[in-house]
Amino acid sequence: MIVLKTKREIDVMRVACDIASAVLQEVVEYIRPGMTTKQIDEFAAQQIKKMGAKSAFLGYKGYPCHICISVNEEVVHGVAGSRRLEFGDIVSLDVGVVYRGFIGDLARTVAVGGCSLAAQHLMDVTEQALYEGIAQARPGNRVADISRAIQTCVERHGFNVVREFVGHGVGRAMHEEPQVPNFVDGKPSPRLRPGMTLAIEPMVTAGQPAVKVLNDGWTVVTRDGSLSAHFEHTVLVTDGEPEILTWHERTPSKLKVS
Ligand code: MF3
Ligand code: CO
Fold first, then answer.
1. What is the extent of the structural domain holding 133?
2. Is the pTM of this model over 0.85?
């Protein structure tokens, strides 16, 4: 069953999503080469608390961290620890918070300091695929229209979408129906209706799409060791244009010299 949100519920979700996106922005501005992923998770925990919310991930099926931090060949669900970020790494940051019973969920991949053109291209295409998918989140369309737009964008650029993990409905629960795959498989696909809230989240690999889970039970990595990127927004289906609930301004880099 797909839960349609009422206007009042959507207003609470807006706040949850604002908090999640503000936390992500703070984390992006905080990270520097040399930091451990554990340090970043602790900073994220502080920010989530400061903004009056709770991590939606900590304790979920036993997940041990406040946010997911996935470096280079790590695709999603990276577990923070003693790994140090190096200049040139790309790091996927996935933030989910609970506020007054509702969840906001978003992710973004960023370079640590700077990165190769190839890594930047992978990130750009993944983000573009997210927005191509979001553009299809309109009443009358089906979930598969979102999936197709994402897959087409990714494969046109010679990259691949991960099959084992998918986007999802989000609301009081982190994973609600419907599933939002980043590929089409010909299965029947639900029609989109106003009031649906979807976490749309392309997970893209520079090489082969196959992934595996590490021995920590969580961290998903590419089997071939190729780089991966992940962008996610929580999106509201309205009567008209899709509304990105986790939208946030990006402040200009503090390092920029005028
Ligand atoms: N955004 C991710 C998802 O939709 C985050 C889940 S991490 C978990 O699956 F640890 F909470 F599972
Ligand atoms: Co998600």
1. 7-244
2. yes
